[in-house]
Amino acid sequence: MDKHTTDDLRVRRTHKHLYNALLGLMEKHSFETITVKQICDLAMVHRTTFYTHFNDKFDLLSHALRQIAEDEFKLGQLTPSESFQELFSIATKQKKLFSQLLAEERDSLRNLLRREMGSGMKEHLIEDCSIENNSIEMQIAVEAYVGAVLGVLSWWIENNMPIDQENLYKQLT
Fold this sequence. Notes:
By secondary structure, the protein is mainly α. It contains nine helices and no strands. Helix content is 73%, strand content 0%.
């Protein structure tokens, strides 16, 4: 049994206190600077109890986000289109949390690739598709394309490159 899955009300209550403490701290501090001690102090949970349930603050964040998704997305009940709408609705309600989570990767390789690919994509859209530079339509098209390509790249690497590069490229294009 997964150590995060339980019907025990005490465990669920402990998880909820820890989730809420972490999310509350993220309202005021960056995730990087938050410590397990701060989370435990705010949740009024002993560090030993924390480590009984979670490996570290990253594990806690992952499970807190999964819980938000399960609570908000009604998993398995929404169409992809409804899921997208729900995601943007949750992001509107949890703007500060989403802003911080998405900003954490500001200097990451993924973000650098996203910026570079985005600038190349903009040039293509201006020249070949006559989309006005820096319009909302342009930004949405660029972000959708680049996000999809980077998502596939991540999947390909995480799954030990299950198809060769040329086949992957053909499927993407």
